[in-house]
Amino acid sequence: MQKNVNQYIEYTDIKNGLVILVDMGSLKEIYSKFTKYMKGPVAIINNVSTQMAIFVGNMLERGMYLEQIVEKIKGSNHTEYNIIYPEDHKEKAILTCCFTGMGTAIQLQKLLENSIPSEMEIKVIPYDYQQLEEFSFSDTLFKLFDVLAIVGTANPGVKEIEYISIEDLISGHGEEKIRKVFQKRIKQPGD
């Protein structure tokens, strides 16, 4: 079984996360065997019943984040859990967001993708404004990506990340902030 899990983790895109349900066993023993293969967060939940497996499946189907799933399970069951994040190189990213919804965030993504040279290898990710505002820097996205900046129509208040308003970007007032973001990317050899 361990070999199958290792192969799955190594050859499957799990950047958005993976849930492993275990009926019995030691969490330390389980996750220590495949951490070197991880490319995304893995939640391992121990002492799982059939009812809990169905509950987890329903939450995954609704697109809930690993942390949210674990919190719900903690509240309804006494269970052991662990979420492990990859320790190797994180992909660089710029987030786009809009207070009114994802439409403008997606348009900003397209605009930035067309403006950023591909050799810089910076991913542009449209993201939900309310999610950023509510979870701030503790959001799972910041564990998966090295977020260089947030560009949007309103500041979601993530203090740890540079915010650049679309108005400043268009008017040229955000030029110095953008320059700093790109300098961070250029200064890091080996990326």
UniProtKB/TrEMBL annotation:
Q: Show where the PTS EIIA type-4 domain sits.
A: 1-81
Q: Which UniProt keywords apply?
A: Transferase
What name is this protein filed under? PTS EIIA type-4 domain-containing protein
Origin species, per record, is: Tigheibacillus halophilus
Query: What superkingdom heads the lineage?
Result: Bacteria
Q: Which InterPro entries match?
A: PTS_EIIA_man-typ, PTS_EIIA_man-typ_sf, PTS_EIIB-like_sf
